[in-house]
Amino acid sequence: MKLLKTGAVALNQTPLDWIGNKNNIIKSIEKAKETDIQLLCLPELCISGYGCEDAFYSPDTARISLEILLDIVDYTQNIAVCIGLPIWVNNKIYNAACLVANRQILGFVCKQNLPNYGLFYEDRWFQRWKPEHIDEISINDFKYPVGDIIFDFKGVKVGMEICEDAWVNNRPAPRLFDRGVDIILNPSASPFAFHKYKIREQLVADASRAFGCGYIYANLLGNESGRLIFDGDALIASGGDIIASSDRFSYADYTLTTAIIDIDTNRIEQSKTKSTPLIGKKTVVSNLEFDFSETPQIEPFKQEAFEIGGYIKEEEFARAVCLALFDYLRKSRSYGFTISLSGGADSCACTALCGLMLKLGDESIGIENLKERLSHIPEIKDAKTEEELAKKLILTVYQGTENSSKNTLESAEELAKSIGATFYNVNINGLVENYTAMIESQIGRDLTWQTDDITLQNIQARVRAPGVWMLANLNNHLLIATSNRSEVAVGYCTMDGDTAGSISPIAGIDKSWLRTWLIWLEKTGCEVKQKHIKIEGLKYVNALQPTAELRPAENKQTDEKDLMPYAFLNRLEILAVREKKSPMECFKYVEHICKEEYDRNDMYNWTVRFFKLWSRNQWKRERYAPGFHLDQHNLDSRSWTRFPILNGGYTYELEKLKEYFEGNQQRKRRGIGF
Ligand SMILES: Nc1ncnc2c1ncn2[C@@H]1O[C@H](COP(=O)(O)OP(=O)(O)OC[C@H]2O[C@@H]([n+]3cccc(C(=O)O)c3)[C@H](O)[C@@H]2O)[C@@H](O)[C@H]1O
Ligand SMILES: Nc1ncnc2c1ncn2[C@@H]1O[C@H](COP(=O)(O)OP(=O)(O)OP(=O)(O)O)[C@@H](O)[C@H]1O
Ligand SMILES: NC(=O)CC[C@H](N)C(=O)O
């Protein structure tokens, strides 16, 4: 019986953190050896980090990566390990993975298919390796094979696909199958997006079925470089089934997933499918002989409760953003988070996420390990509980004006109290009045709500920024900007006012869904070990209607009155931005789909408003603090949705839409069906 004990590691790496990355790799290899693993897969580019951006062009990045690789080789006695790193071959840069076994480098496989869509830009730095091409590189006067190679461990053959390689039509796997490969390793850097884990599971299970092999998939973990979150998905499949998968969203440096692959049984499946043997291609023979296991895989594949509890999007959002915040705090060496807390949905969501981060972190690795990972923060040395941590790490401030209500103050204060955050309450009315009077004296007239509505709104939002920045500076905190995705789409914010901040944790999520999530977090919460982590202090905000509270209370300002219903805005954003439909196409779509919900006239006005605001506010999107990628189609102008800052404002398209709308209105009035 050829039963091989294998492992996949999810690593929390940081671009260009050579020592930190090396230590994580070595720790995970040592752990794998303790567990008698014989073949181990680590994630893509795990030595340098995946998100090195233009630092990949620096020859030093590849040079130091090789240096680190040579250090790691010493730790591979009696184990084979796949390690990702950038390499130079003939003055070109490749995204490669090295197979090391028994303290020897066997060779390098290079990625053949590079993702260059959405948030990926790999074509900018790397070359695509040509299938079946083989070359050599020299390291310290030794030559090693590089390219489309496979590895032979006394009869057990191992091949590789590197991340995107497995997602495309012309993937290497069929060619590996033709060469009789028993196991395919896939070092990956696959960023988090809602529900994407399902695609990965399917991909890995299907590959193992179609190619009759064991398939070992390792992904990165955590917020690697600022915007991208990796969920730490590691998967092992055999015989067409997933036989092991990692706990996702861990707060640890790494997680190790293990499984026993039955090589003989997979071979029987391979033997049933005809193929064209590829002869004469490069196979690197290793001197490592695997010690096969005596015991087959008996533990069934188990998922964590939250994965199957029926609230996967809510859970994924909570866990992905909390882990991203934690890593951002740690990796930016900041001492905590400061939030201007209005008691409304957005700032409450940001505050709740900070509180939840501590609770989930505590559940994941325990409070002492959590403190250890934040050991750069002297203030938390003596903290013993989540609340004591929250007091130091989360600072909130309510900044009321004469337009603020008792309800929002209560909501802010109660939420802060319920998670243990520090809460301050200041009044900024005097500051607003001073600014207004200063300008009035110069322009020689009073500013009024009738004539100067936006200006009077914006000054309130702007006056809140310096004070909250001051608190952030005092405490060496990150200032959280609270803009959500719906506001980002239409620029519904005051630049340098409520956009002030260093990170925007909710800029990737729409307001409509965010509000349902807040209710879920108050009433249901994250499922961990047979209990639920809720934030009950959200009950006050969940009873409120979103409002900017910038106009006098008698005007009863609500966001949705200013803009349009958030659910409708979200629908338009998907149609207009993701699906690139024209104003006319969007309107025709919504007038058909939403005719029971909204008045046609309103829908026309909202569609026009959406396109005008969307096209006018690209400059604002360019200036939001970095946010996190949460799905496959977001509005991040730096790495995702590109749009010209100066543009025609859809004037022509909106004129055509007007003709269509008015034409149809007249036909409707005359009783002609359409
Ligand atoms: N293409 C371009 N490139 C660069 N800059 C451009 C520009 N077009 C305009 N601008 C500049 O933009 C300025 C206007 O932008 P800005 O000052 O931000 O203000 P603006 O976008 O005119 O108004 C802010 C909007 O956000 C709403 N708001 C504000 C605050 C909070 C909330 C809330 O939900 O709580 C909502 C408020 O009700 C209002 O509708 C102009 O003075 C001009 O200088
Ligand atoms: N009274 C206030 N005290 C402190 N911060 C405030 C206050 N009013 C507004 N802000 C800041 O300005 C941001 C933008 O306001 P906005 O109204 O868009 O968000 P919100 O109040 O959190 O949520 P909602 O829009 O659902 O009411 C807030 O998230 C908050 O950071
Ligand atoms: N690093 C990669 O090649 C990632 C690409 C792949 N399609 C993914 O999202 O997982």
Automatic annotation (TrEMBL):
It catalyses: deamido-NAD(+) + L-glutamine + ATP + H2O = L-glutamate + AMP + diphosphate + NAD(+) + H(+). It comes from Lacihabitans lacunae. L-glutamine binds at Y117, S190, K196. This is Glutamine-dependent NAD(+) synthetase. NCBIfam families: nadE. Its EC number is 6.3.5.1. The keyword Zinc does not apply. It comes from the Bacteria. Deamido-NAD(+) binds at N458, E487, K620. Keywords: ATP-binding, Ligase, NAD, Nucleotide-binding. Pfam families: CN_hydrolase, NAD_synthase. The active site is at E44, K111, C163. The keyword Nucleotide-binding applies. PROSITE patterns: CN_HYDROLASE. One of its GO terms (molecular function) is NAD+ synthase activity. Pathway: Cofactor biosynthesis; NAD(+) biosynthesis; NAD(+) from deamido-NAD(+) (L-Gln route): step 1/1. CDD domains: GAT_Gln-NAD-synth, NAD_synthase. ATP binds at T482. InterPro entries: C-N_Hydrolase (IPR003010), C-N_Hydrolase_sf (IPR036526), Gln-dep_NAD_synthase (IPR014445), NAD/GMP_synthase (IPR022310), NAD_synthase (IPR003694), Rossmann-like_a/b/a_fold (IPR014729). Residues 4-263 form the CN hydrolase domain. The gene is nadE.
